[in-house]
Amino acid sequence: MSSADPASPALALSVRGLVAGYSEQPVVDGVDVDVPVGRVVAVAGPNGAGKSTLLKAILGIARLLGGTVHLEGRNVTGLPLQKLARLGIGYVPQVEEVFESLRVGENLEMGGYLCGKRERAHRMERTLGVFPQLRPMLQRYVETLSGGERKMTAIARVLMLDPRVLILDEPTASLSPEMSRIVLHEQVRALGTIGKSVLLVEQKAIAALEVSDWAYLMVRGRVVMSAPAPEILHDPRMREVFLGGAVAELAEQAR
Amino acid sequence: MSLLIDAIGFGIASGAVLALGAVGFTVQFGISSILNITYGSLMTLAAYFGLLLVGAGLSIWLALAVGALMVGLISVVFHRVLLGPMVKRGIRPFGLIVVTVACGIVLQYIVVAVVGPTAQSYGNVSGATLRFLGMTFTTAQLVIIAITASLMLALHLLLTRTKLGRAMRATSANRTLAQSCGIATDRISDVAWLISGSLCGAAGVALAITVATFDFTLGSVFLVPMIAAAVLGGVGQPYGAMLGGLVVGISTQVAGALWNPAYQDVIALVILIAMLLLRPRGFFGAAWSSRRLLA
User: Fold this and answer.
1) Does A141 reside within a domain?
2) Domain span at residue A120?
3) From CA B53, how far away is CA B166, in angstroms rounded?
4) In this predicted model, what pLDDT tens digit does every residue of B60-82 receive, in sequence order?
5) A64 assigned to some structural domain
6) Using one digit for the tens of pLDDT, what is the confidence trace for B236-275?
7) CB-CB: which of A86, A97, A143 is closest to B182?
8) Within a domain: residue B295?
9) pLDDT tens across B7-32, in order?
10) A145 in a structural domain
11) Which residues of A touch B88 (CB under 8 A)?
């Protein structure tokens, strides 16, 4: 898949040779990632593999040292986050993914900041259709919510932007296994079915593979494996390589 | 007893000025995480702008409005050209405070170089004296209280009822996330510095009106009780700063009346220290944090 032309309109997001980091020592070292239109693509890997930095570099938050980023065939390398939002990229960070001191309804309003009043009301209804549980919580301050409700608010907020490409950084971090399942299987999968292209970073590799079309394994700043997610899940040998590599790396880090 | 009630009245009047200044100060911290000590000298500058405008024939209240706006614009430029770029280049908070202290001193010397060290006055602008619930107010004091109350209400409505105000709170709460929503956070910062700088200017002219005569140290002397008011309310929380202004204003005036007016600033600081010992995060602490508007 990484041999495709980055300017191809079939690719919602295409990253080539990305090098990034906070200093001269790159945390991400020459990574290629493609997200075809309407697909969910997962990047798995152990802690410290550079997954979050990869996302932040794509989004213009972390310092980009090299490589290119194309959005629907258009070169968007190094554009600031607020421009990328205008171009249709939505982002849910791993932590601080909501406006803590704002109400749930105000969080959603900020998600729809770029559109007019009428369009925003329309999107609000549509988003509350996807997350009906949020309706009775609209007046509540986010800091009074549970972890799962927070995550739901964060994903609802990003849907208000009506992005074509969604970048999710560990949406299940700090959630219970049960809540993680709900977030991935119901919320993230739902994004794919409504036509969003999703780039998902997850440490919980099996759970992420179950809802993804394609998966990359990242270790120490490099992509070491790239394959269709169902293939990895169903081929015991590949599964062992994919997850085993991560486990071995984790074991090495723990030492 | 009447001495006490009079002191409360005067405390409300000086509390109104403190609140005006403290809210602007706290909004700057909330939106940019900058403790802007230059604020005091900018208040002084506003007072002299007021003098200039009154000299040019404007009424004192029009001079207050124009002087406030001028300092608001200067504050935007100050943040855009100096403080903002320093923050973007990763200056440490302590370094930034030192910069604002230095700028405050430089500005104060510029003021004294231009206008000289002698005390100035707007002339007799206090107007007729009115009695209200046993307290005595001058017309000017009542107008200042009314101006403060309406500006605070306007700020409240802006922050809670308008998209711009919510974007200010969102930027203050989480700048990166705000950018990911497409919010132009730099422009939001400009608006916040225009508003807070104008509050600074309004407080400067209002202070000069209430103290009758003033010189180039006007704002820097006022900085101490004003920061006390802002910290009491929890820095970054406008409602806290409003209440903090009133508490500091009334308690210093009452204590001054009962004891010795010379100790007013000392009393403000003692209240501050005692309060922070009991409630390290300001009046409302964590319980209030769900309703906080900024920070």
Assistant:
1) yes
2) 95-162
3) 35
4) 999 999 999 999 999 999 999 99
5) no
6) 788 888 999 999 999 888 888 888 878 877 887 888 788 8
7) A86
8) no
9) 899 899 999 999 999 999 999 998 99
10) yes
11) none
Q: What is the DSSP letter of A103?
A: B
pLDDT at B287: 40
On whether residue A110 sits in a domain, the answer given is yes
Q: Is A63 strand, coil or helix?
A: coil
Query: pLDDT-based confidence at A4, cuts 50/70/90?
Result: low
**A225: phi then psi, degrees, rounded to nearest 5:** -160, 145
B52: containing domain:
2-289
Q: What ipTM does the predicted assembly reach?
A: 0.89
Instruction: Chain A: give the shortest CA distance to residue B188, in Å.
Output: 13
- Domain with B38 in it: what CATH number? 1.10.3470
Q: Residues of B at the A interface (Cβ-Cβ below 8 Å)?
A: 163, 166-167, 169-170, 172-174, 176-185, 289-295
Read off the amino acid at residue A220.
Answer: R
B120-121 and B213-214 as β-strands: parallel, antiparallel, unpaired? antiparallel
Q: Is residue B15 part of a domain?
A: yes
How many domains does chain B divide into?
1
List the alpha helices (DSSP H) in chain A. 51-58, 81-86, 104-111, 117-130, 147-160, 177-181, 189-193, 205-210, 229-234, 236-254
**Contacts with B183 from chain A: Cβ below 8 Å:** 82, 110, 113
User: Closest Cα of chain A to B184: distance in Å?
Assistant: 7
Q: Is the pLDDT at B46 greater than 70, yes or no?
A: yes
What pLDDT does residue A45 have? 85
In chain A, the number of structural domains is: 1
At A139, is the secondary structure helix, strand, or coil? coil
